[in-house]
């Protein structure tokens, strides 16, 4: 899907997030893999996901405020849920991995299918940010 130039980097990062969520689902039932995957999730959070969330919250979500508040709120709630689950993972709760992967996948699909098109509709009518 062709994206507005301001979203290309974020969409590419979404691909990496989907790959991570798939990797989580594959190892979810293997206790031996969970420790390694927990480490991978926490590294991805620090190096990729947090900067990604910050960019969305700084550059994308404010533009939606007032017109698409429900979608904006969902994105923020998803970010918060992922951070809470990551905190549990960091505390040694490998059972949070499966839910983390499921929410991450659903969140990315929501952004690509719903949130980003709404953002694009607003910036094309207002002009490029």
UniProtKB/TrEMBL annotation:
<feature type="domain" description="Hemerythrin-like">
    <location>
        <begin position="11"/>
        <end position="118"/>
    </location>
</feature>
<protein>
    <submittedName>
        <fullName>Hemerythrin domain-containing protein</fullName>
    </submittedName>
</protein>
<dbReference type="Pfam" id="PF01814">
    <property type="entry name" value="Hemerythrin"/>
</dbReference>
<dbReference type="InterPro" id="IPR012312">
    <property type="entry name" value="Hemerythrin-like"/>
</dbReference>
